[in-house]
Amino acid sequence: MRSASSLDHALAVLAAEPGAWMPFAGGTDLMVLMEAGRLPKRRLLSLWNIDDLRGIESTDSLVRIGALATYSDLLADTTLQREFPLVCAAARETGAIAIQNQGTVGGNIANGSPAADLPPALLVYDAALHIASVRGRRVVPYGEFHTGYKIMDLAADELIVAVTMPRGRDGWSQTYRKVGTRRAQAISKVCFAAAMHVVGREVNDIRIALGSVAPTVIRCTKTEETLRGKALDAASIEDARARLGREIQPIDDVRSNAGYRRRVSCNLLGNFLSLAILDRSG
Fold it and tell me: What is residue 115's three-state secondary structure?
């Protein structure tokens, strides 16, 4: 194992031998792989001591989260608590306190699990990933980053350095729900995040994202289109539930089955939309 002293150092190591090194930070996913005997036979490059990858900063237009920000860092940030509650809800659902203190945002994304707790919230908030290598820097919309199961738009010599999210969702209804075998420290069977802006009874804009129902975490754009510009009523809610059931691609596995995941996903959407009606009428 080798420890990088700076971002430039880490990028130089990765560039010198692309694919030879496995970068990691908190190591929470690494320990799972090691315990299961599935740790890739690559050299390990620790990023934990790179201060440039830490911190959460806010400007007038966006919030920037360093790739080494931990779940505990997310929970402690007042801007995230106030304006991005789904991110904090996801952080709160992730593991025990020890995991929250050690696990990082960048590591959670780069692990590429469709069952991860944080990604649906990031999709709802139109997050973007800032990626660096010795060849330069680029920005990738998070919705385009995961291209298949454990496949992502990240070269062997690149690192995620930060996540940014645009501000400005005052007055939006928002919800985050994780369904697992236990109430805590469980891998999700379904993970649901949504945010919606309603004017009168009409859906002005909406974001819906789910985890554990497809090869990657997904933004359900077709279901969103079913609702956008429509009045919220029993008929539009039922149309959206039916569209969501066709849009997601759940599978049977050791934690659940496709039928259960589809039914729960549709119920979570229906509950979110129905509660929004009650909130408007109340």
Answer: coil
Where do the domains of the chain lie? 2-166, 173-281
How many Cα atoms sit within 13 Å of 215 on the Cβ side? 8
Q: How far apart are CA 227 and CA 236, in angstroms?
A: 7
Q: Are the C-beta atoms of residues 95 and 185 closer than 8 Å to each other?
A: yes
- Pick among 2.130.10.10, 3.40.80.10, 3.40.50.150, 3.30.390.50: CATH of 173-281: 3.30.390.50
Joined together, the tokens standing for residue 129 give 């990933």
Whole-number Å distance between alpha carbons of 277 and 137: 44
Both tokens of 280, joined, read 């408007």
pLDDT band at 130, cuts 50/70/90? very high
In order, the DSSP letters of 162-209 are: EEEEE---TT-EEEEEEE-SSSSS---SEEEEEEEEEETTEEEEEEEE
What sign for the dihedral angle of Cα 268, 211, 141, 105? positive
Burial 186-212 (b: 16+ CB within 10 A, else e): ebbbbbbbbbbbbeeeebeebbbbbbb
First to last CA, the chain: 58
Per-position DSSP letters for 196-261, written without gaps between them: EEEETTEEEEEEEEEESSSSS-EE-HHHHHHHTTSB-SHHHHHHHHHHHHHH------SS--HHHH
Q: pLDDT by residue (tens digit) across 158-215? A: 999 999 999 999 999 999 999 986 555 568 899 999 999 999 889 999 999 999 999 9
Distances in Å between the Cα of 23 and the Cα atoms of 40, 51, 210 are: 12, 15, 27
pLDDT band at 150 (very low <50, low <70, confident <90, very high): very high
- 3-class state of residue 119 by DSSP: helix
CATH-assigned architecture of domain 2-166: 2-Layer Sandwich (3.30)
